[in-house]
Amino acid sequence: MQIVLFGPPGSGKGTQAKRLAERYGIPHISTGDILREHLKRKTKLGLEARAYMDRGALVPDDILIGLIKDRLSQPDCASGFILDGYPRTVPQADALSVILTELGKKLDVVLTINVPDAELIKRLAGRRMCGCGASYHILFNPPEHEGICDRCGRPLYQRDDDKEEAIMNRLEVYKQQTQPLIEYYTNKGLMRAVDGAASIPEVFDALCRVLDEIQKSAL
Ligand code: AP5
Ligand code: MG
What is the model's pLDDT at position 12? Predict the structure, then answer.
């Protein structure tokens, strides 16, 4: 299955994509994670992206389009993928459609996770991360021992763009530049939405129901 997981910052894309990737046996591709990895390794791309990411702005389309083209051409994407955080602009969505056509694939669904703004702010401000990729929330998904990763025992940290000013900017950027994609994919008949304000397992079940239905109808 070729899936786009769509939603505002903090809606739970990363949390759910990790679980869905495991259940459906397809790779989770997060452009935010790929960019943060470049940043950590101080690559040319990472250094270029840093200024945009820290203030919660979008990294330019040409960088993202090149990056996603490379990633989708990897052999592990042969049986499908879950895109998290891409596309975020109409030019990125147009480019995705060209890339998929070149690869002989097409999108099965764009799954949107809807969450009210006030809840998004609480989620982002309380998120804590680990270098191993695990993600927690100080109230909604806390680790067993405060500030320590359950999986690898390392100390947790806060993302630079989870500070208040950057959070507000990310929400505004989402409304201005990314939200138009809802109409874009609705017009293509690909959009399905779930209520993301429920608990993490409840949202997971709702997403699986939609995906199982799509899988069944393709048989
Ligand atoms: P990216 O990393 O994609 O950030 P984002 O879209 O802002 O989304 P987040 O990762 O913040 O939230 P999420 O939806 O994954 O939520 P999560 O599961 O973590 O992008 C970062 C930056 O990179 C961008 O600002 C931009 O600069 C750049 N970038 C990336 N892609 C780009 C692109 N295509 N074009 C241009 N620039 C790009 O959950 C959040 C918190 O809530 C966690 O603590 C979690 O535990 C908790 N939580 C999750 N679900 C629930 C629930 N149901 N109930 C309670 N708590 C929950
Ligand atoms: Mg994420």
Answer: 97
